[in-house]
Amino acid sequence: MLDSSGAILLGAMRGGVVGESVSDPAVAGGQQQPDAPTTRQCVSCGRAINWNSNVCPYCGHDYRMAQPGQAAPQKERSILPVIGGVLIIIAGLAALGMGVAFMALDAQDIEDWVDPAELDMSLSDLDDILFTCGAIVIVFGVIAVLGGVFAIVRKHFALAVVGGIFSILGLGFAVGAVVGLIGLILVAVGRRSFDG
Q1: Helix (H) or strand (E) holding 148
Q2: Which whole-number Å values give the CA distances from 123 to 48, 73, 104, 137, in the listed order?
Q3: CB 179, CB 89: distance < 8 Å
Q4: Would you list the DSSP string of 155-193?
Q5: What is the rounded distance in angstroms from the CA atom of residue 3 to the CA atom of residue 140?
Q6: For residue 58, how many other CB atoms are within 10 A of its CB?
Q7: HSE of 187, CA atoms in CB hemisphere, 13 A
Q8: How many CB atoms sit inside 10 A of residue 19's CB?
Q9: 46-55 LR contacts (CB < 8 Å, sep 24+)
Q10: 157-195 tens-digit pLDDT
């Protein structure tokens, strides 16, 4: 907008009062200042866009969004996944202990509780079953511990849930299954706190 003397009225844009004329000769003649660019390159598509554009008209890149160097707004982080992750790790460690106990047991140690003749198997078959069950429970315990770690750092929600499920399957002297279930529930409730 020009007033009667040909000066551009910038008003509030330059910190002045609306209607105040600018006496800068470069601006007063209707010419743009040489050090103020009128266009810029879009960082997304590379095309020239107006310097004052908030959104690229070609690719839609939004310049109002936080850039990588700027701090993004923090989302609320619940403590529930951390508590659930700790409980899942405890259940996983109980499962590891139970698996080691199965592997360390000898068939003769449990002969007082179970008679292999009634089960129609030999002592060596019972030893093999105990060893295999112990190995399976140890694998379940390791997966549970890893899932608990993922829950504590709030990364990879699905892996944290898988760890919680395996903490229940690992049994962990029966107490571990209950602790693992509570941990899994806490992780599921705190799902929004996860990054991935």
Answers
A1: helix 123-152
A2: 82, 64, 14, 21
A3: no
A4: --HHHHHHHHHHHHHT-STTHHHHHHHHHHHHHHHTGGG
A5: 81
A6: 13
A7: 34
A8: 10
A9: none
A10: 999 999 999 999 998 888 999 999 999 999 999 998 888
CA angle 81, 84, 90 (to 5 degrees): 140
The three-class DSSP label of residue 83 is helix
32 pLDDT band, cuts 50/70/90, is low
What residue has token string 């009634």? 118
Average pLDDT over residues 44-68: 81
Question: Measured on CA atoms in the order 15, 21, 26, 32, is the torsion positive or negative?
Answer: positive
- pTM for the model: 0.59
φ, ψ dihedrals at 129, nearest 5° = -65, -45
Name the residue type at position 57: P
Helix, strand, or coil here: 171? coil
Half-sphere exposure of 123 (CA within 13 A, CB side): 8
Closest to 142 (Cα-Cα) out of 115, 118, 117, 170: 170
Taking every pair of Cα atoms in the chain, the longest distance, rounded to a whole number of angstroms, is: 114
Q: Any idea what DSSP says for residue 71?
A: P
